[in-house]
Amino acid sequence: MMRDVIVIGCGGGGPVVAKELAERGLDVLVLEGGPRFPDPEREWSRLENDANNPITGYLRVGPSDRSRPAYPRSLPQDSFVWQVSGVGGTTLHYYGNCPRAPLGTFSGYAGADRDNYDRAHAFPFTYDDLLPYYEWVEATLPVQTAAMGTKEAKFFSGAEGIGLPVNTRKQPTQPSFRPQENAILQPQGTAGRVEDPVYPDAQGCTFCGHCFQGCSMPSRAPRNLKAKRSTDNSYVPMMLTADAWASGGRSAELIADAFVQKIHTTTALGGKPRATGVTYELPGGEKHRVEAKIVVLAAGAVESPRLWLNSKLPNQNDWVGRGFTDHHLDWIVGTFDERTESSKGASSSARADFPGYGGLENGGLPSGLQAFAETYSDSGIVGARKNASPATLQGADTIGRLVGRDLLEAMSDVNRVLNVLVLTDDDVERSNRVRLEPVSLADTNGTIPRVEVQHRKRSARTFRNREFLAGRAVQLLRAAGAKKVHRMDWPPLILHGQSTMRMGTSAADSVADEWAQARAVDGLYLADNSVLANGVGGANPTLTTQAIATRTAERIFTQHFGGEAWVRTSAPVCSIDDRITAAVIARGL
Amino acid sequence: MPSRPTLHAASDPPGRLDRRGFLATAAVVGGALVVAGGLPDEAEAASLVLDGFNGLAAFVVPGFDPYSVRQGVTTKRAGGVDNGAGEVVIKTLDRAIPAVVGETDLSVPGALAYALLLKSYALSVSPLRSIGPFSNAFANLTWQQKREVLIRLDAAPPLENTQITFAGNALITLAGFGAYTEGTAWDASQRRLTSLPVGWTLSKYQGVSNGHADLIGYYGGRTEVEA
Predict the structure, then answer these.
(1) Is the CB of B180 less than 8 angstroms away from the CB of A368?
(2) What value of ipTM does the predicted structure carry?
(3) What does the pLDDT look like over B92-102, one tens digit per residue?
(4) Residue B22 confidence (pLDDT)
(5) In the 8-state DSSP scheme, what is residue A328?
(6) CA-to-CA distance for A152 and A179, rounded, in angstroms?
(7) Which alpha helices (DSSP H) does A34-100 contain, by range?
(8) Min CA distance, A374 vs chain B (Å)?
(9) Binning pLDDT at 50, 70 and 90, where does residue B160 land?
């Protein structure tokens, strides 16, 4: 059977394309290599090792059967790629933060600070071109202004203390701070006010503090009314019920634990290859081949280039997998005498933006992840002779791993710390890349991916930005009243993997064109973080990926199926719409 | 001389992980095997691994367990060992790296490979102190000597530029993580906590909750922003 569209990957981007096209009546098949969690309230313990152990947890990159190994990745440097496979993908553990990309990351930007950005790798369209798609996604998820708990109040006091103004708009144009615009439903009723809230008395964020373990709250809420708008709670319920709420809609089909191993193409004499379908494997080894008019690759910044290369698709300019950006994250911890309630509430509801440099956001964590964050470093053990890391204290009391009595002291009360995550506006660099493991290590899905990040040799601008932001984070924490400040200098902890199949203005250094269609293969589009043109200026990438995926869906519909564009001429249905809720309940989703 | 067993991860086949891929690793692990006196039998291996990573757990989060006592840095409360941090590290490494090929056709799971490395580094830091009650020399060191072992591992990773380079840096991190999570207090088969995790007591973490009463409101009273 010939499908209209096959979407490979049910993470942050794939379901966006699937929902938009299912809403318009196309026959869409979504294939996800990881598990589906149909009943998270019962399935997810929300215990950190059970959830977040990157090898054995239920939120890992691996198959449903946790007795089987995780999918291996080759990491030839100190680093870890912290993604999640499964329906929802990495949005299952994301914080839901939805800043738009800074203006300077787009073509056509002429601001006075334009040279502060990675202009060589700007998005191949203007901010105004993408704006309607941002607004569409923001209304669909929906994106709202974050509520404030104790840790956010502490962050804001620090930001005020270092003289930052508050930003009351969607887009920062100067250094400033603000509550996050995030994809987390605002607390209503008893949510955020009691210890054991239950739907419908409680709606929206219950302040449980478990964003990173997967959002299953409020208890008893229908799936599309869970607080965090990870795609398993937003776009996936929409794509699976499109026939119920969209005139002419047709529900997408979803198959989980279906690992796509090959993209098939055909090539007419003298022409370009054209995608024709895929082969996927189910648990137990059963293989299936499916044909489609259009294939959308949305397997993530590591698996998308891997699948491309394992499928032996063309790579004439040698940019497949290259240009990996990751925001060169760092983590700064302040310890306080007073309570911060850092393990409670939505994990990150406050941020500060420094256009041209990146941003800072708070990061609340439970106990185990707090210890993880405080023991992961590229600078060695605190007080020891330093490694070769170029990072410096930037005003902190320590730099490096905390161990022994130092760790016991820093961990003496998880609710008296305030963490700041450094999100560096990092450059696209050719040498940072995903490729196939050259010594032919393979698992059942083909040669495994090798992720290479030369983190001690980042560009001068990337290094400058990270050091600047670390310094501002230290100042913010001190202004908030921290009695000690520890800089971790993380090795690559890749939570924001981006731009490995980048779109660009030049065919010489990009894999996809301005419409996210693969330059080398007709009928093949990209719809995950891999297609981002750059590091999004340090902004959390999911919203921009979802806006581009919406634009891509519209392009597919108009170019290949004779449809009309809709984003500028209609209003979106919100994922918490009553019609969707009714369908979710009726179908037991 | 009795033949040595081939060891694999406890419950996982190595899959198709290709022996050729571990050539660089093999040299290091092979070297560690030589320093450590060869590959132990399975019972010895289990003890070597457990002692090695309990020694690491005591280093990262000391308590009053025998490993902490041996290293000379203790506290008045239970620490990482009692939270099962060593076991968390072992399980994670074995799952992450199902098989590392040694100098011969022998293959070992990841935890044993790294336990052997800890042992060989310990012997180089203090051959004398390495002798003691524990089967892994690392666990017999003083806290300062353990620190020196881990500084050397940090500064000159033995498995650099191999598929598993990341795991060396992760040893301390995994031990810290294991010490402050639910650790071995979680009975996965029954899906329940069998006791209050030690790490939660240390960090005053209140545990899993459906919600908290920590809503203050909205900064500046703004519930939405301008476009």
Answers:
(1) yes
(2) 0.96
(3) 998 887 666 54
(4) 41
(5) T
(6) 8
(7) 40-43, 48-52
(8) 8
(9) low
Does B214 sit within 8 Å of A150, measured CB to CB?
A: yes
The packing angle between helices B23-35 and B110-125, to 10°, is 50
Nearest CA in chain B to A80: B166
Please, are residues A326 and A497 in contact by the beta-carbon 8 Å criterion? yes
Task: Give the span between the Cα atoms of A210 and A221, in whole angstroms.
Answer: 16
User: Which residues of chain A does B189 touch, with a Cβ-Cβ cutoff of 8 Å?
Assistant: none
- Give SS3 for A124: coil
Q: Does A184 touch chain B (CB under 8 A)?
A: no
Distance CA A54, CA A66 (A): 12
Three-state SS at A249: coil
**What proportions of chain A, in percent to the nearest 5, are helix, strand and coil?**
25, 20, 50
pLDDT confidence tier of residue B227, bands split at 50, 70 and 90: confident
8 Å CB contact of A407 and B61: yes
Most A CBs within 10 Å: which of B203, B218, B223, as the mutation test of the A interface? B203
CB atoms within 10 A of CB B189: 6
Of A78, A195, A344, the CB nearest to B165: A78
Q: How confident is the model at residue B21 (pLDDT cuts 50, 70, 90)?
A: very low
Neighboring chain B residues of A59 at a CB cutoff of 8 Å: none
pTM (2 d.p.): 0.95
Q: Count Cβ–Cβ pairs < 8 Å, chain A vs chain B.
A: 280
Q: Which residues of chain A have pLDDT under 70?
A: 385-386, 440
Which residue has better confidence, B21 or A282? A282
The CB density around residue A448, as the number of other CB atoms within 10 Å, is 23
Q: For residues B130 and B63, is the Cβ–Cβ distance under 8 A?
A: no
Where are the alpha helices (H) located in A235-336, listed in sequence order? Answer: 235-240, 242-245, 303-310
What is the model's pLDDT at position A29? Answer: 98
CA distances from A51 to A93, A225, A262, B49, B107 (A): 10, 22, 30, 24, 30
pLDDT at residue B11, rounded to an integer: 32
Of B158, B167, B18, residue with least CA distance to A438: B18
pLDDT surpasses 50 at B16: no
- N-terminal to C-terminal alpha carbon distance within chain B: 78
Mention every residue, 6+ apart, whose C-beta is less than 8 A from residue A141: A98, A183, A229, A234, A546, A574, A575
Answer yes or no: is pLDDT of B8 > 60. no
CB contact under 8 A, B220 and A168: yes
Q: Is the pLDDT of residue B18 over 50?
A: no
Residue A380 has its nearest CB partner, among B16, B151, B177, at B151
What is the nearest CA distance from A364 to chain B, expressed in angstroms?
12
Give me the pLDDT at residue A295, please. Answer: 98
For chain B, give the mean pLDDT: 82
Q: Which residues pair with A288 in a beta bridge?
A: A280
φ/ψ of residue A88, rounded to 5 = 115, -25
Token duo for residue B110: 């990841």
As given in the structure block, the two tokens for residue B81 are 């060992």
Partner B contacted by A43 (CB < 8 A): no
What pLDDT shows up at residue B33? 60
Q: Residue B173 corresponds to which amino acid?
A: T
Block residue for tokens 């977040």: A52
CA distance A377 to A399: 8
Q: Which residues contact A488 (CB under 8 A, 6 or more apart)?
A: A330, A331, A332, A333, A373, A374, A376, A377, A399, A400, A401
**Which ranges of chain B would DSSP assign to H, the alpha helix?**
23-35, 42-60, 66-71, 85-96, 110-125, 137-140, 143-155, 165-180, 198-203
- Which residues 16-45 on chain B approach chain A with CB closer than 8 angstroms? 16-18, 20-21, 23
Give A 221-240 residues with CB within 8 A of chain B: none
